[in-house]
Structure formats: C-alpha cells, structure tokens
Design brief:
The complex is a heterodimer of chains A (374) and B (352).
Chain A: H1 4-17, E1 49-53, H2 63-77, E2 83-87, H3 94-105, E3 110-113, H4 119-127, E4 132-136, E5 145-150, H5 153-166, E6 171-176, H6 181-195, E7 202-207, H7 214-226, E8 231-234, H8 240-248, E9 251-256, E10 267-273, H9 276-288, E11 295-298, E12 304-306, H10 315-329, E13 339-340, E14 346-348, H11 356-360, E15 369-370
Parallel strand pairs in A: 1-2, 1-3, 3-4, 4-5, 5-11, 6-7, 6-8, 7-15, 8-9, 9-10
Antiparallel strand pairs in A: 10-12, 13-14
Chain B: E1 5-9, H1 15-39, H2 44-56, H3 59-83, H4 92-109, H5 114-143, H6 147-167, E2 190-192, E3 195-196, H7 198-215, H8 217-227, H9 229-234, H10 239-266, H11 277-287, H12 294-314, H13 319-339, E4 342-346
Antiparallel strand pairs in B: 1-4, 2-3
Helix pairs in contact in B: 1-13, 2-3, 2-12, 3-7, 3-10, 3-11, 3-12, 4-5, 4-6, 4-10, 4-11, 5-6, 5-10, 7-8, 8-10, 11-12, 12-13
Classes of the chains: A alpha/beta (374), B mainly alpha (352).
C-alpha cells in the first residue's frame, strides 16, 4: 500500500514545510487577483489526487449535497484522476487538522475545505507548500491557500423583498447557525429587503450552534412562530424548519437547494448554490500547472441565485422581487447608506455603498434585528 | 460430561487472565471488523497495513497520534484516580471544558511574558477542573448524592458555557463558518515536532499518581477506603476527607487536560475543543482496569484507534463504523472482565 516514492515525498514535504511562506492579505485585498507566487507545477491527470472535506453528510440535500455535486462534476470532467478523496462530517476541532493532514499524506495535489475550518486547516496548509488548498468561506490567503464564497446577500435581499410583501405581521424569523459573517449578512440583507417594502418589519434570530441539527432547527422554528413570526428564513443545511412552517401555515425560505417538496405550500424560494463549474475549473488549473491561490466571490447568477418561486407565491410578489433582482444584476446595490446598527449608531454613511468585501466581513446587525450579539 | 463441570466465581481476578481477556476482546473486534470490511469489498489486510504505516511511518502521522495521546492519558487518569476510592467521575468532559475555558480566560486577558503566563494557564485549567467537580464532591461527601449523575449533568452545562463565550462575548470578530475565540498568544513549547510538552508531563503525572497511591500512607488509606469503606472507617481512616481530595484531584487532572489541549493543540476555545475526550477517558480507564500506569498504554491504544478512524474515513469508510468498533471493544471487554472472574471446576472438587 505504501510506496518508497510516497515515503520520500513525505520526507520532502516535511523538509519544505518550514519554508512555507504565509502572507495574510489585508481585508482590502483584490478579489480574484492572481497571487505573486509562481503557480504550482502541473500534475498528470492519472497521478492527481483531489481531496474534499465536508461539514455534513453528502445526503443532507443542502450545503454538502451541493458541494458533492461539484465533486461528481470533477469526476466526470476528469475520469482518469488517480483518486478523489471525500470525507463527510469533518468536525470543527483538531480532528479536522488530522483529516486534512491525512489527505496530504495520501498525496493530494489540491484540497477543498468546503466549510472553512480556519486554523485547523491552516496548520496543514503551512506545512504542505506544494499542495493547493481552497477554503470555502475562508478569509486567509497564502501562497498555496485561496478562498471562495458566494455573494449570497444579493439573492437574500431579493427573497427579503418577497418576505416584505408576504409577511402580514412584519415579524420575520431566522434560524441561525453561529454568529458568523454569513449569518450577519444573511439576516441584514433579508431584513433590508423586507424593509424596502414594509419599513416596520423586524427580524428575530435564534442561534442553534450548528449547521446541521434538524431537531434544534425545528424547535427554533416553532419558537419563532410562537413569537408571532409568519415568515421563516435561516441558513441550515437541511429542511427541518420548512416542515415546521408547512405544518403551522407560515411562509419559509431556504438555503442551498430546491427542497420545496418538504413544504410545498410554505416554500417561497431558496438561496441556490452551484459549485460545479468552479471546482472543475480549479482542478483544470491545478493539472495544467496554472493554479495559484485566488480569492473568489461568486456573483448572483453565477453559482448563487434565488430559486424558482414557490407555487403559492402570488405572481405580483414574484414580479416585484424579480425586478429588484434584475436591478442588482444591472449594477445597483441595495447596501447603500445610511445604514444603522442595532444600537442605532450610523455604520454606513449616507450615499456610501458597502463593497463585496465589506459584506463578506459583515459582523454587526442592522437596526431591527434581534437575537444576535452585535 | 458437561454436568460434571461447574463455574465458580472468584472475588478477585488474576491480572494475567484479565489482560488476556482484553486482548481477546480486541482481537474479536478486529476480526469482526475485518470480516465486515471483506464483505463490503475492502481489503482488510491492506487497510490494516495502511493504518500502521500512515500512523507510524510519517511525521504527520506520529504528530497526529501523539497529540491524541495527551488528552486521552489525562482524562483516563482522571477517571482512574476517582476509581481508586470507588468514585465514577463521568464529568471529565465538563471538567476538561471548564479547564480549557479558564485557561482561555488567562490566555486572552492576562498580559505578561510567556514564562509566567503559561504556568498560570495550566494552573487556571487545574482550578477550573476543581471548581467544576466541587459541587458533586460536596454533594457526594456530605449528602451521599450519586456522583454518576451530578458529574454527568454538569458536562452539558460546561458545553453550553463554552459555546456561549466562544460564540458570544469572547468571539473572534474575523469569523469563519464557525465561531471561536481569538487565538491565545502563549503556546505550550514543542517537545517533538508539533507534539508539545504535555505528552511527557501527562506520562509523568500518571506515574506520579501511581507511585503516590502505591507507596504513600495516603494512597494506602485511599485504596482501603475504596475497597471497603466501612472497614476503613472502623480503622479510623477519614473516608469522607479522602473522597473529597480524590474527587478534587480527579477534576484537577481533567482540567489540566483541557488547558493542555487549548495551549498546546487547539489555541482557540470553541465548542468542539473537548472532542469527547472526557467520555473516551472513561473507556481508557476501564480498559486499564483503573491502573494509573495502565492508562498510559490504553491511552496510546485509544489514540491509535481514533487516529485509525480518521485514516479509514479518507478511505471512504464512515465515522459510524469506527465508533461501532470502539463501542464493541468496550462492550466485549466488560464481558471479558466478568468472565475472568469465573473458573471452571469439576463437580466434587474441593479446591476453593
């Protein structure tokens, strides 16, 4: 099972580890800009090993499922790859380091961390300078580490517009994972969209400390509805709160994939994600010897979008929201000041527009959001 | 013929037989797992060779393995120490978490040079562990409340406490997809590769605990109180006081394990920091028959099993299969332990 070649490769890796330069780009770094470092050398397809580490199970019909579709696309585009390694349920703990190190030991040339494990991944990145790493939702760049994520705040704003029309109480509920930027930008964009229709709308978030915990998500959904919310949104990798919304007769919008069959009456839309083209392109570059670490935020319509509207969504609501969507695609940004935070302080001056990186790093709640520590 | 035989239960077990039973239990599990893998179309021998070579023939593998050994020895020791006086500390998980929490508090908020802060971090971890077992200790010593339940339930409180601070007040502003505190600046010095000094210290702690229990008057009194509390009390031994010190010591060791994990391996407090080490420590101690020296070896064995689980995962085998294997080892060991108490006798034999 273990060859001399592999052993000596490892020895080489360890020697070179100390030389692994790590340069942190400041948050103003250019998106998608090629790094100064030379590209990693080409690899023959028959010799190449590509690794994927996922936060959940590939059967979740959500986040991990969507990434798995990307893995399948890679396998289809490069059928001669020596090996594609895929590990599900990578914990956010020191075990993540062990899993990614094991990928390196298996000879991986390019490794995707599909749900950023931060330092746990970076420990490995620094010590494997000839392996390329891409961290989804990451914010650190090194010579051999890049990141990729989605401009999800734009489709979220569009769904928020629909919520503003559909919600009678003006009380929106949000099932949150952790108080991380994805959740701040998600709650803020959603409420801003709703407030563009109903200025009195408010949003209550419940943090459940997990991306995949159907039971906790269902409990959170129930509690939010009991508090008067008649539109549920969230950032879960599964469908639990949609089922609650269906049962209780309120609206719900989801993330990742089209899962309307779990609640056809409640379903409004979903923030749909697609990593297939990106993964195939990254692997292509790595094989061709053109891979350098890059920073990527997918634009709306290119890997991230709203899903086709639910069957119970009135046509005029869908039309109003889609007009906003088209406006955004044409270059308009809803994230323009004046924007106040939940304590009433002005955080974005009137007339100023938040950049995509500002939105990516969003770590405070706007006025009207409760339940997240600002 | 069979009627001519009968089973006799012995009050104590010879260590040799008990060890043989353990080896047999592990062999049965490995055999069963191999058959399952074979049925699933995998090659168990090649996988086994891969496990050994991936763990022991690369620096990466040895480091992963060594870093796992440290917390397992310590949580195992924590449980084993409690068992000397008949206490089941199911709360090593919580004491570990609070130890890491207290260590983080020092690491984040106390400024100073590393040579001063590092001992403070470890002391804070120890104190955190002691504080977390204090209430179960007093409840057990003075009111006789079963420590199994109190220590277990406090684990959940500790986990929520860690989640609260790492996702709330102590959250790092530059977020990832999960919340954690900022990185503490002080680190445990490295001992070999990425393996920090926690490893030799953990082994020394286990040896020291074994020596004190075996050779000191205090150790003798503790062991006597554990095996026969009434006799010990009759002999004038302060059983209650010994229960208190032993339980606090057990919590202290688990708290130190949490501080080591934080300052040596993980560097940021987050919900997953305990990695179930507290619960795994129970298994480490049971496999070691509560021997303080034994936990060094069973800690190593457990680390190998857990590391194997990670290697198997990259080979496409699910975590659940590995969990099932560790569970089966514990289950069969428990049966083996019970069987080791029995001896087959011929009917009519008078040997006792």
């Amino acid at each position: 099972m273990i060859s001399i070649e592999k052993l000596s490769r490892r020895g080489f890796l360890n020697m070179g580890a100390a030389a692994g330069a790590s340069l942190l780009l400041p948050r103003t770094g250019l998106i998608g800009a090629a790094r100064a470092a030379a590209p990693l050398p080409a690899v023959a397809e028959e010799d190449a090993v590509i690794g994927f580490g996922h936060v959940g199970p590939v059967t979740d019909e959500g986040w991990t499922w969507a990434h798995h579709q990307g893995v399948l696309a890679v396998q289809k585009a490069f059928p001669k790859l020596k090996k594609v390694l895929e590990v599900e349920n990578v914990p956010y703990s020191a075990d993540a380091t062990r899993i990614y190190r094991q990928f390196v030991s298996e000879g991986a040339n390019l490794i995707f961390d599909t749900s950023s494990t931060g330092d746990f991944l970076h420990e490995v990145v620094k010590r494997a300078p000839d392996v390329g790493f891409m961290e989804c939702d990451g914010r650190t760049t090194m010579d051999n580490l890049g990141w990729y994520y989605l401009n999800h705040w734009y489709p979220t704003y569009v769904v928020g517009v629909a919520a503003g029309h559909l919600s009678k109480s003006g009380k929106l509920g949000y099932v949150a994972s952790f108080p991380v930027p994805s959740v701040f930008s998600g709650t803020n964009a959603f409420l801003m969209g709703a407030r563009s229709v109903n200025p009195n709308a408010t949003l209550q978030a419940v943090v459940i400390n997990s991306w995949f915990d159907p039971q906790a998500a269902a409990q959170a959904g129930t509690a939010l509805i009991d508090n008067g919310c008649d539109f549920l949104f969230g950032i879960m990798d599964e469908a639990a709160y949609l089922q609650v919304a269906e049962k209780r007769g309120v609206w719900a919008a989801m993330w990742n994939t089209d899962i309307r069959r779990y609640g056809p009456n409640a379903y409004v839309s979903s923030i749909i994600i697609d990593f297939k083209d990106f993964y195939v392109d990254q692997v292509k570059k790595r094989l061709a010897g053109e891979w350098t670490s890059s920073e990527n935020l997918f634009a709306m319509g290119k890997g991230i979008d709203r899903d086709a509207w639910g069957e119970k969504v009135p046509a005029d609501v869908a039309k109003a929201a889609d007009e906003v969507r088209q406006k955004i695609i044409n270059g308009w940004s809803p994230f323009t000041g004046e924007i106040k935070d939940s304590t009433g302080k002005v955080r974005v001056e009137a007339g100023k527009t938040m950049t995509d990186l500002d939105l990516y790093y969003w770590d405070w709640s706007i006025e009207g959001v409760s339940g997240l520590s600002a | 013929m069979l009627q001519g035989l009968r089973l006799q239960r012995l009050p104590s077990v010879q260590p040799g037989i008990a060890l043989a039973m353990r080896a047999l239990a592990i062999a049965i599990v490995v055999l069963a797992a191999s058959i399952a893998l074979l049925v699933a179309g995998e090659d168990p021998i090649a996988l086994g060779a891969q496990l050994v070579s991936a763990t022991f023939s690369s620096t990466f593998g040895m480091e992963d393995f060594g870093l796992l050994v440290i917390p397992l020895i310590l949580t195992g020791l924590s449980v084993a120490v409690g068992q000397q006086i008949g206490i089941w500390n199911i709360g090593a998980e919580g004491q570990f978490l609070v130890g890491a929490f207290a260590a983080t508090a020092v690491g984040l908020f106390v400024p100073g040079p590393a040579w001063l802060i590092l001992p403070l971090i470890i002391a804070a971890g120890a104190l955190g562990g002691v504080v977390w077992i204090l209430v179960p200790t007093l409840a057990r010593a003075f009111v006789g409340v079963n420590e199994l339940i109190t220590t277990l339930l406090l684990n959940f409180v500790a986990a929520l406490l860690v989640y609260y601070v790492s996702t709330g007040p102590w959250r790092d502003r530059v977020g990832m997809s999960n919340s954690s505190t900022p990185r503490i600046t002080v680190e445990m010095p490295e001992f070999w590769g990425l393996i920090h000094w926690g490893l030799p210290i953990a082994i020394l702690m286990a040896l020291a605990a074994a020596a004190i229990l075996a050779f000191s008057r205090w150790g003798y009194e503790v062991r006597l109180s554990g095996s026969n509390p009434s006799a010990a009390a009759y002999a004038g031994i302060a059983v209650r006081r010994h229960i208190i010190t032993v339980m606090l010591l057990s919590g202290l060791i688990a708290g130190v394990a949490g501080a080591f994990e934080l300052a040596g391996t993980v560097h940021r407090l987050q919900g997953g920091i305990s990695n179930n080490f507290g619960y795994l420590g129970i298994m480490v101690a049971v496999l070691a028959r509560n021997s303080c020296v034994g936990v060094i070896f069973t800690g190593i064995l457990m680390a190998f099993i857990l590391n194997s689980g990670i290697i198997l995962q990259t080979q496409g085998i699910t975590t659940s299969a590995v969990l099932a294997m560790t569970g089966a080892i514990l289950f069969l060991t428990a049966i083996g332990d019970e069987l080791a108490h029995y001896r087959i006798l011929r009917a009519g034999s008078t040997r006792a």
